[in-house]
């Protein structure tokens, strides 16, 4: 029924009611959201009552819409009671308009909801304000014609049985990398190695558009839409300081221009195969850029110290947790098998059907403990998430300070050996607050952090006791989990280094050896494995052993020493004193501490949202 024209017959009571509701929906969208409907058919529909804000999920709505033809995009603004759908043809959208108007669907809570549809010229909402691009970044659209795009794609046809793999481009710069990304493939956040390439890096996108995330060390994220046939130019700050990368799912978030980082559950547009041509100039001299803390040419002159602000804390975590755990993921996972009894007990006690988020799921050791729960995992490490997916677990990559899950949507959360990797008290409290945000009222969270007190009630922790292992056994025991989150064993197990002193130079480690008699100039000490802690903020070594599956994982860019025969990596920790975790939890509003305890070298809290 077309709500914009009077029918030629008398409406019955039900039809009159529906017409009033549809007109009311149209006026409400205009008055409160600024969304103007049109009286003629277009490819685009606004679906009133079909939004995340009133309990309709994408999983429910998309199959309903696809009954009338392929849906090019389904955009669902967060916390809004409407969504936008774009069909390939106007005929398909007209079929959906006629059939679905007034149709009942059931939301996530089992309640019936009636859909009201209207045509719009384009999908938009007021919240999406364009963000400024990182300094030195440009996106030049339509840099080549569609004919040139077709020719380039044909020149790199890598389908099986095809010999034509030649690229005819012969430009300066003097280095060209060509990559193809299937739907579901992406690249982790990284900075192209400073010492390897000159300032300007240029990348041509063909075949399919993507959203590339640029992230500043202070946590600001700017998602940038790279349309097909566009040229990305990175110079200065955007090239040297901001990480860039993208996760390429089968569906992706889409809007006009730049997508703001707080949009969350936005989307969908179907992904095609993307081919990128990236041009670089090989550097012949050391880099002397203005960003020494992230520059591999200058970094040895600036060993890490206690962070004095949020920016320095983020940089410390990036280098001494995030990058490290990307590198050691497979080795780390191989040392993580047995579930911890207290965590298993917590998960087993939850009601059947509970939604549980493992914030820092690591290799997914707890995601399958209780089959009666609906568990999702997230981790900062793409390589550990890859391992979770190999096990058929639901897991995704994200930052523990900004988990892309709706507020109040979880019955429980666990955070195991994650929060001790944040480098300031403020960031540790922010991570706790993010856990509370995810919980529904009455929901519970279980939190584990590494304890400074490795001897408690006159009993040594397993971590210290393992220092008795004889040198002949050389048992493979290693460290804990990564920041923002990786899941670990009962305590972060470390390699034996009986001859090393408790403080040594990080530069000595980076150069391939450890002189136990030297002392680093930095204020941040390197801890000796299997010994008591003398400082709350430390770097803990991980000696990487043989890793035959390493080629299956994503290699982090520009990580010094990553190709050494037996490299040593250093992870940042803040070990908690007795009472410190409870004190941090007590700064949160609407939280009650149900239980706090010590568990084999870890301080633990169970809290409830009230």
Give structural notes.
Its EC number is 2.1.1.229. InterPro entries: AlkB-like (IPR027450), AlkB_hom8_N (IPR015095), AlkB_tRNA_MeTrf/Diox (IPR051422), ALKBH8_RRM (IPR034256), Methyltransf_11 (IPR013216), Nucleotide-bd_a/b_plait_sf (IPR012677), Oxoglu/Fe-dep_dioxygenase_dom (IPR005123), RBD_domain_sf (IPR035979). Residues 43-113 form the RRM domain. Interacts with TRMT112. This protein is an alpha+beta fold. Among the domains are: 35-119, Alpha-Beta Plaits (2-Layer Sandwich); 137-155 and 170-282, Sandwich (Jelly Rolls); 310-453 and 578-609, 3-Layer(aba) Sandwich (Rossmann fold), CATH 3.40.50. Helix content is 21%, strand content 24%. It has twelve helices and 29 strands. The radius of gyration is 27 Å and the shape is globular. Residues 1-7, 125-130, 160-167, 249-268, 468-522 and 547-565 have low confidence and may be disordered.
Layout of secondary structure:
Blueprint: H1 13-33, E1 37-38, E2 44-48, H2 58-65, E3 71-75, E4 82-87, H3 90-100, E5 104-106, E6 112-114, E7 116-120, E8 137-140, H4 146-155, E9 175-181, E10 187-190, E11 201-206, E12 210-215, E13 221-226, E14 230-234, H5 236-240, E15 243-246, E16 251-252, E17 269-270, E18 274-280, H6 310-334, H7 341-348, E19 355-359, E20 374-379, H8 382-390, E21 395-397, E22 410-416, H9 425-438, E23 439-450, E24 455-456, E25 459-460, H10 462-465, H11 506-510, E26 537-543, E27 568-574, H12 580-586, E28 591-598, E29 602-609
Helix pairs in contact: 6-8
């Amino acid at each position: 029924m077309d709500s914009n024209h009077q029918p030629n017959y008398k409406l019955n009571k039900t039809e009159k009611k529906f017409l009033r509701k549809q007109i009311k929906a149209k006026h409400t969208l205009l008055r409160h959201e600024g969304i103007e409907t049109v009286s003629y058919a277009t490819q685009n529909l606004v679906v009133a009552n079909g939004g995340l804000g009133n309990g309709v999920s994408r999983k429910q709505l998309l199959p309903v819409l696809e009954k009338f033809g392929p849906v090019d995009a389904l955009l669902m603004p967060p916390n809004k009671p409407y969504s936008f759908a774009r069909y390939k043809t106007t005929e398909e959208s007209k079929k959906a308009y006629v059939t679905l108007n007034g149709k009942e669907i059931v939301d996530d809570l089992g309640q019936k909801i009636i859909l009201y549809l209207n045509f719009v010229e384009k999908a938009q909402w007021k919240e999406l304000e364009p963000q400024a691009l990182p300094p030195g970044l440009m996106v030049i659209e339509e840099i080549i014609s569609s004919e040139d795009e077709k020719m380039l794609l044909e020149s790199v046809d890598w389908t099986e049985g095809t010999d034509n793999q030649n690229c005819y481009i012969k430009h300066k710069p003097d280095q060209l990398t060509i990559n193809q990304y299937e739907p579901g493939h992406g690249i982790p956040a990284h900075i192209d190695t400073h010492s390897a390439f000159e300032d300007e890096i240029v990348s041509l996108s063909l075949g399919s558009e993507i959203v590339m995330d640029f992230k500043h060390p202070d946590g600001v994220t700017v998602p940038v839409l790279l349309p097909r046939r566009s040229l990305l130019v990175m110079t200065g700050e955007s090239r040297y300081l901001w990480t860039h990368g993208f996760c390429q799912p089968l569906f992706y978030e889409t809007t006009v221009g730049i997508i703001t980082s707080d949009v969350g559950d936005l989307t969908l547009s179907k992904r095609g195969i993307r081919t990128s041509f990236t041009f670089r100039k090989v550097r012949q001299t050391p880099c002397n850029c203005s960003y020494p803390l992230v520059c591999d040419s200058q970094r040895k002159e600036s060993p890490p110290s206690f962070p004095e602000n949020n920016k320095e804390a983020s940089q410390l975590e990036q280098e001494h947790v995030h990058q490290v755990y990307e590198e050691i993921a497979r080795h780390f996972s191989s040392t993580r098998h047995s579930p911890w009894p207290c965590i298993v007990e917590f998960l087993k006690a939850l009601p059947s059907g509970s939604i549980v988020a493992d914030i820092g799921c690591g290799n997914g050791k707890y995601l399958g403990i209780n089959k009666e729960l609906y568990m999702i995992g997230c981790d900062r490490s793409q390589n550990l998430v890859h391992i979770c997916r190999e096990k058929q677990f639901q897991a995704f990559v994200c930052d523990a300070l900004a988990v892309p899950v709706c507020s109040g949507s979880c019955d429980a959360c666990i955070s195991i050996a994650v929060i001790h990797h944040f480098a300031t008290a403020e960031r540790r409290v922010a991570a706790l607050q993010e856990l509370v945000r995810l919980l529904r009222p009455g929901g519970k969270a279980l939190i584990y952090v590494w304890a400074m007190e490795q001897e408690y009630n006159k009993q040594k922790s397993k971590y210290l006791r393992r220092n008795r292992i004889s040198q002949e056994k050389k048992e493979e025991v290693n460290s804990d989990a990564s920041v923002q989150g990786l899941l670990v064993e009962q305590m972060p197990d470390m390699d034996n280094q009986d001859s090393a002193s408790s403080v040594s130079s990080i530069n000595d480690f980076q150069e391939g050896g450890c002189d136990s008699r030297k002392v680093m100039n930095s204020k941040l000490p390197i801890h000796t494995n299997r010994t008591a802690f003398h400082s709350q903020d430390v770097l803990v070594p991980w000696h990487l052993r043989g890793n035959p599956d390493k080629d299956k994982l994503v290699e982090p860019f520009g990580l010094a020493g990553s190709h050494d025969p037996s490299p040593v990596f250093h992870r940042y920790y803040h070990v908690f004193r007795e009472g410190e975790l409870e004190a941090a939890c007590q700064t949160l509003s609407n939280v009650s501490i149900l239980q706090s305890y010590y568990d084999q070298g870890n301080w633990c809290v169970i809290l409830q949202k009230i």
